[in-house]
Amino acid sequence: MRQAGRYLPEYRAVREKVDFLTLCKTPELAATVTVQPVEIIGVDAAIVFSDILVLPEAMGLTLFVEEGRGGPRFGEPIRSRPAIDRLVLPDPATDLRFVMDAVRTSTRELRNRVPLIGFAGSPWTLAAYMVEGRGSKDFRHIKGLVYDSPRDAHVLLGKLAQAVGDYLLAQIDAGADAIQIFDTWGGLLGKDEFEEFSLQYISSVVSRLNDRRVPIIVFCKDCGFALESIVASGADVISLDWRTDIGEARSAVGHRVALQGNLDPVLLFANERSIQSGVQRILEKFGFGNGHIFNLGHGILPDTPVANVRAFVEAVKSLSVVYHREPVGVGKSV
Fold it and tell me: Which fold would CATH assign to domain 9-239?
């Protein structure tokens, strides 16, 4: 959940020397900030430093990142069928080589201390950015495409599913130990539209990755209404946003998948006692046994105090030990 970032002084020191896209496209620097949270915070896995929008850029869009002025945007949003047809399917080994090199370099620098997670945006989330041109309050252009020209929407999403699948397979081949698919904007859709325009394309990507036998994590933000359907995608782990009750999720689907989550990132601005209490509540809700990857319920916020992040990680490691076992009288005795 955005482990590397502005909350770390060491990350800011790297960023003072280069702009964001240069950082993403310089494998040695990307590997440096990938490893930072492992060494500074003590997390149990690393996620390769990149951005979901480098894939649409490789498909032919011009990507700009306006430093401190609204974030990434595309020069010419996709607003017509000819624009969709002009999108190319990139070769990850060449067109996105900088990501593969970052994966390889990060793997080497991690020295088997923790696993490395590769990732991509879901087809729907990428389409949302590509059609809007940037983040939006209402995403009216992509929703207009769905409502007015669903066939064109499916053509775009099908092309993106192919590109995302190729991209993630290449990350696995480069050394990624697990894969996460981020559907940041799945919650824009109602249940029927979510299953038609987002989930079926996530499922298509997952089906292509299953033969590689690496864990696949799917995160659909604000999609608790479709939890059962998301489990049917074939993913090994379902990542929960912080609004979803993890105990209820475990009761509903936890016997079929592992669950990841889901502390409110804002809680990391509270004092250490409150952070520990928040961690304890989630552990209690999930209960005993395995199948829980403790994480935030969305990305870490830029101004989060580093000491609080450490307190969070330490609380998880110390308080979760008892929950790794089955309680006396259930399964094996402790």
Answer: TIM Barrel (3.20.20)
